[in-house]
Amino acid sequence: xxxxxxxxxxxxxxxxxxxxxxxxxxxxxxxxxxxxxxxxxxxxxxxxxxxxxxxxxxxxxxxxxxxxxxxxxxxxxxxxxxxxxxxxxxxxxxxxxxxxxxxxxxxxxxxxxxxxxxxxxxxxxxxxxxxxxxxxxxxxxxxxxxxxxxxxxxxxxxxxxxxxxxxxxxxxxxxxxxxxxxxxxxxxxxxxxxxxxxxxxxxxxxxxxxxxx
Length: 213
Hints:
Elements: H1 7-30, H2 33-40, H3 45-51, H4 54-72, H5 85-101, H6 107-118, H7 122-147, H8 153-172, H9 174-180, H10 188-211
């Protein structure tokens, strides 16, 4: 299949890919424009032309990685607004796990986000506002529906965080799990099993919470 992109567009994409790898390996502060451009086979002036500076390049890398993952696995994942909250919760969890455990995406994307969370820069504020917050609010609305109208904002918030935390555990603890259970493989094949478990576990807790005064 022919590549219809212009030379400038291809250079920009190479810079994003190379920058993602270097930032994931060395972190924002230690990464250099010279190394990124060398890996991208681009002139050092290309970063200034396409992104203005290293900060803007770093933000573009994070946003591009998020956008690609969300395009592939949107949080609604085949559901419609009229579907039950149970179905929408299941879809949200499944999509989230697929984004976290997708072995098909570039390996640097997961490492880069983990590094950004551990060593946050100003870019994290933008990612939270533009991407993470809207999806967190979507999950919150599903949780509120399951808890019932009488649920306090604090209970909704804590319950929403608990659902997210169960999913993130399998991403951040993959290396530990691999040592505790060497035969377990946490890839896309495990997503259906994990989705079913987290959904059941969360729904049981939410229904119990809904019955409390």
